[in-house]
Input
Amino acid sequence: MPDQPDQPDQPDRPDQPDRPDTRDVEPGRDRLRGAFTRPSRRQAVVGVLLAVLGFTFVVQVRDTKANDTYAGLRESELIQVLDGLTGTAERARREVDRLESRRDELLDENQARAAALDEAEQRVRTLNIIAGLVPVSGEGLRITITETTSRVSVGSLLDTVQELRTAGAEAMEFNDEIRLGADSSFQNAVGGIELDDQLLEPPYVLDVIGDPHVLRTALTFSTGPVETLETLDGAEVTIEEPEQVEVTSVREATRPAYAELGTGQ
Output
């Protein structure tokens, strides 16, 4: 073979710095990213400790600044600051006293209002009973008047009712159907007595609520209602004392046609 010309020698390349192998860099970045995104328990504890240390440092710096606020003041200035704080505390104390006093006044007003309301409700209940507008029950007497030899007069029945009212009767009812009121009226009628435009036939049964002993005394004293009924009207009178007297009939409330509340009522 013919001799080939000699190839010129390749010049030596200057030494180039070693480039980091990307395969070595990528795992390091992955570890760093993992430390931030998925810290280990040890790393988390270290992070919490650093946060607490930073917070403590910030608080200490603020306290130091606050203390420095008064550190450069003269004695007279400090006295003025103290006087201002004392005045503020005194005003706050007076405001607390005022609010507590107002609270007590409101409580007293509420209690007085509640007491007045209770009293008004009690008066309404009492007036409803007296007027015969509600059914009632309680201790009392049952009086039965039976005609024997003659008719019972209107005057004798009216005297009986009046004596019971004077003795404190709180509710009265005839024959379980007619409630007596302050304006009740008696009249003679065929077959009996007319009471408040209703026919009342004998025997006349009168239920009365009140103190049984006082009511009985009001009926049985000498020349009283029982003696009058038996001697003058020839009636037979029996008085019973049940455990409970029931007055179930009621009257219809009537609106006054002429009377009005007085001034200031």
About this structure: Residues 132-247 form a domain with the Alpha-Beta Plaits fold (CATH 3.30.70.1880).
